[in-house]
Input
Amino acid sequence: MKSSYRVKEMILTLQGEGALAGTAVVLLRFEGCNLSCDFCDTDFTGMDGSGGGVFYTAIELAEAVEGKWISETSLSVLCTGGEPLLQLDLPLLQEFHRRGFRVLLETNGTIAVPGEGAGEEKIDWICVSPKKNEIPVQKSGDEIKIVWPQEDLDPGMFEKLDFNNFWIQPRFDRNYKENMKASIQYCLKNPLWRLSVQTHRFTGMP
Ligand code: SF4
Output
């Protein structure tokens, strides 16, 4: 059992990318990551964001997430980071489900997801975004997303994994225009892969 959950920010917004783009979610950004990618564009350190802080129990955290929701239906929480699987555990997953939440996950794929055992509760939507040129620990899910370009990473090695959606997403840095062109070119040459556009980059959503 966890002694606490560390949260960078907790915001009601619309999912910005991937197959669920435009869907209302409480974005729950956990603090900390187990990788240090040189192209990382996410601030996941500290607990100083909107709604951030330390939560001492799964009930306390789930209650805070529920408090952000303004509709009475279709509750969804998007667990992201950093790497959310450093903290998202079975008790928290169960507590979200007990409150009627659909639990969406964005992970770098280096840690097995909780709730995959027979008869256990499962995460409702899994998005894996590998950052290394190796088969991820998490080999199945709803979508796989490659930030592009990534040196020494070949998206082709993930094509046989058990995912329903394959995304190429332009790396967001000072070469964004070139990265977008390279991503479009990759999808044209490899049509299994679709272009993921980060809508929050131009809508002003978090
Ligand atoms: S895995 Fe994601 S959040 Fe972690 S350092 Fe890499 S890009 Fe940043």
Remarks:
- The CA atoms of residues 61 and 190 lie 42 Å apart.
- Residues 33, 35-37, 40, 42, 44, 81-83, 108, 131 surround iron/sulfur cluster (CB under 6 Å).
- The beta strands are 5-14, 24-30, 53-55, 76-80, 102-107, 125-128, 140-148, 162-170, 194-195.
- The longest strand covers residues 5-14.
